[in-house]
Structure formats: C-alpha cells, structure tokens
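Researcher: Sequence recovery benchmark, item below. Answer with residues only.
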C-alpha cells in the first residue's frame, strides 16, 4: 500500500454553494470568509462564478463607504463605456468624427510638405 503525503497550502474550505447564498435568512451572495496571511482573501467559488472571474484574472478593488467592492475588469470597462457614452450626444459617431479630423490634419500636413518641397526645389534650381 502506498501512503500519500497530506497536501498543504492555501485551501478553499467551507465555501457555501450558490443555492445556500440565497437562503431566506441571508442576503443574496453574502458569505463570511477569513482574511489569511499577508491580507489574502479567498473569494468563494459561487461569487467568482457570479462575477465571471477565475484564478489569475485581474480584478478591481475599491473601498466605498467602508465596504470593499470587488469588480471584474470587464465590469469596470462596461461602466466606463456607459459613463463616456453619456458624454456623446445621440446620433454622433465619434469614430467617424475622429477619422474625418485626422484626414483633414493629414491633408494639411501633406500640403505643407508639398509647398516646402517646391520651395526647396526652386532654391536648388536658382543656386545652380
């Protein structure tokens, strides 16, 4: 018989299931966890699933009114897109506006370079 050594390490024990998180006496997705060594916090699997995050993903943390809020980066990006979307009037396409402005700037730069080239050629011819 082969004996296996007991594995040790940072283990996720005692997590509640998604269904248990919705028990009538608990708030939805409320769970109690312990703060580990070095401030490590294990997010229960059901909560990670609800957030759409997995081990190794970057997440955003913020403290609001004494609460630690955890958000996936996708959620942060979606919030920013919504906020920036409010700054643009309906019916305006900022990409088209940007491209139109960029083309105009490029046209002006090209015209300036053409003028400088012509002037340089005239100076060259007059000095010969």
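Model:
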């Amino acid at each position: 018989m082969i004996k296996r050594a007991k594995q040790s390490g940072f283990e996720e024990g005692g997590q509640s299931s998604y269904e248990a998180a919705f028990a009538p006496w608990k708030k939805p997705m409320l769970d109690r966890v312990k703060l580990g060594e070095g401030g490590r916090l294990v997010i229960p699997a059901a909560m990670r699933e609800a957030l759409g995050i997995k081990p190794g993903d970057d997440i955003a943390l913020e403290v609001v009114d004494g609460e630690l809020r955890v958000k996936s980066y996708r959620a942060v990006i979606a919030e920013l897109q919504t906020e920036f979307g409010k700054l643009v009037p309906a019916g305006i396409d900022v990409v088209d506006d940007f491209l139109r402005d960029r083309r105009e700037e490029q046209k002006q730069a090209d015209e300036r370079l053409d003028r400088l080239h012509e002037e340089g050629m005239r100076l060259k011819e007059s000095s010969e």
